[in-house]
Amino acid sequence: MGRICVDDDFEKLQGDLERYKERALNLGASRARIVKVSEIPVDEVITLKCQIPRCFGYGTCAHCPPHTLKPAELREHLKKYNWAVFFTRDVAPQVIVRDKATIKERVSAYQDVFNIVSEVESMAFYDGYYLAFGFAAGSCKHTFCGQQESCIALEGKKCRFALRARPSMEAVGIDVYKMAAEAGWDIYPIGSNAKAAEVPKGVLAGIVIVK
Ligand code: SF4
Description:
Blueprint: H1 10-26, E1 31-36, H2 44-51, H3 71-78, E2 83-91, H4 93-96, H5 103-126, E3 133-135, H6 140-144, H7 176-182, E4 202-209
Antiparallel strand pairs: 1-2, 2-4, 3-4
Helix pairs in contact: 1-5
The structure holds iron/sulfur cluster.
């Protein structure tokens, strides 16, 4: 456990960010990079895509729009941070497309991303970056509570997966496609009608805002 970090030790921070990047890779990320928070694109039009056409997750849980953090709120919070670790995880085409035959593998792939985010966030927290927080991919309703009737957090009860569940990057307005493309990483627009044979590869992403 590290002491609480309030000073600006740039060298130590860069070393720690490298460790978080490595940890993400060791936990199953396909690629990871340290990013400046000022370069994270946050835009209301990303959450517009949750509504038009309406996503099956829209409004179904506490971590999806319209219930979660709004892009404008996130932009304000991010002004207080400088560094983050962004990663993607490759997923086989037949798993990423909406096919009932691979639903278990798909849920598992999304859970992997939530796990990487919560592990790296926790590591940063216990290193002394106590304000670290992260976002994963997809809806926690379908990733963790798919067999449940409803999200109990929306009823004012404790989330069934309080430490692991969190909003997706896209749910709070982060342009994931743009971030991945700007990093030089291949990513494809996979919608509800995508066929595995036409998809070069599936990609899920997560991010931990460290300090
Ligand atoms: S109870 Fe389930 S659906 Fe609701 S916020 Fe928690 S993980 Fe998500």
